[in-house]
Amino acid sequence: MRAIAREAGVGIATLYRHFPTREALAAAVYRDQVQRLTQGAAELLRRLPPSQALRAWMDLFGDWLITKHGMIDTLRGMIDSGEIAGTESRDELLAAVSSILDAGTAAGDLRSDVAVDDITASIIGIFTVTAGRSERTGRLLDLLLDGLRAERKA
Length: 154
Prior knowledge:
Blueprint: H1 2-8, H2 12-18, H3 22-47, H4 50-68, H5 72-81, H6 86-106, H7 116-129, H8 135-148
């Protein structure tokens, strides 16, 4: 906690006043990152075509997964205790992917017959199998995106 306070440029008392336990700090960081991921989906859709937004969001999601790897036991405990609403966070993340998928379907860019749960499970699987970020990770995410593209009628 001292290192975190020092990195943040605040005193330890200030840190403890806002986050009395490590778990409270971890929960706040987790909620912030979930919010950034959901807002990231909307931001990407404003700047990019839906398929490109989805691919960029896959990278954001992967980075988020990688940072959570070392905290997984702590996060599971916090979800079990109710400090973090796991279902709520999951629903927010699925809604973010769904918004991109819906935009892609409307644009004729992405398939309409794909379950959002399957997309997130696939992304998690890719990052699990590749143990983080690598050239192979990018190739597999690109392959996933290719499978999500809508068929073009000739």
